Amino acid sequence: MAGLHRDLSNGNRTVTEVVDHFLQVIDEKNPDINALVHIDADRARARAAEHDASGSPASVLAGLPTADKDLVQRAGMPTRYGTAVTSQDNSETSDPMALWVDDVGAISVGKTSTSEFGLSASTEARASGPTHNPHNLSRIAGGSSGGAAAAVAAGMLPFAPGSDGGGSVRIPAWACGVTGWKPSRGLIPAGSGFEYLAGLVVPGLLTQSAADMQLIASLLTRGEWHWSTRADADWSRLESSARRPLRIGRTASTPWPTDWGLVSSDDALSAWEQATSALRGAGHEVVDLDWSPDQSYADHFFSVWIANASQIPVPDDKVANLEPLTQFLIERGRALPASELARALGALKDFERQTISAFSSVDLVLTPGLAMEPPEIGWFHESDPEENFRQQVAFTPWSSFVNVAGLPALALPVSTTTSGMPMGVQLIGAPGGDPEMIRLAAELEGVLD
Fold it and tell me: Which domains occur in the chain, in start order?
């Protein structure tokens, strides 16, 4: 990404040439991968011509192509939310994340695929078909920002925005072997997290490397702030000059019930151990963290998850037309008593405080990434939504609790399995600790290379 910016700044390439290159890669690869569900090449080329006429890039992302996740409205493009029950007409207005893409000078070439309404850890929407993992087309790309991750991994886009309510940026980043950042709650103007029950959902970014993330991360904080509470992030720590030995706690504990039969694969634990050794070799202290989360978490998280799903604007008479998992979550959410939701919200606030307290003795926390390799497309149970939900937890048991705690997290690829699939780890920062977390990820990436 730095090279692209340098070429544009020096006049070695025009924005039109860059956009045409990526459109050609999309044309070649997207039919097999299905990462983009809408492509507007004419709009992208028109925007590129405007950039070329205006002069030098205003930011490191100016003139670079990207695509909006298909949960984000962009004026002039359809927003299908990974479903067939919504309008196929073009949106009339743009959501904050689409406006952010414009503000930093990037050029949207279309829409990346997502699971239906972003509710699944695999991007296999019936309406658009499954998104395939670039490392193995028979495997899933993760979700719900699966199209964004697959497009970046396949070289169709240099970076892509996503959103993360329970791991939806990190899960596909791990699955596709790219870097995915879930920011602190209260950090990003285009999506603070306060808009959702329990503050679960924030925008995030996917890049080909942690070094690329280090280059562009601070741009996501651009925009006016309209909330009374804000995460306090020191972006000077993003620079390598801020390097200092860190105390890193590691844990493979999860708040999901042990009787759900959660099992971490040897590949997952091996990547975790490899990252541990690399961090120690780089001069950081890595200690085992004593963290035993309350396993009542599962019931409370599920209550809030279905309550958020209940707000999806699908009329009751059209719910039966949705995928079984989506239908199940919406119907359960709309039947949830207010008193049960209130109890769940209170319990998750307690979980947030307890988790931050447990992590307060260290600078960052290291966990495994996915518990297993990305499975084959069709592995998640289609007709039994309760089993589907448990499979998702078994696949990614370390992601959702970070959303509940409001902490920043980063998915980083570490190794490759014998079958050629990427495996990674998760770095979790302190509240507002995004800059130092991203800097450490770039350092770890350099050591691993």
Answer: 2-448 (3.90.1300.10)
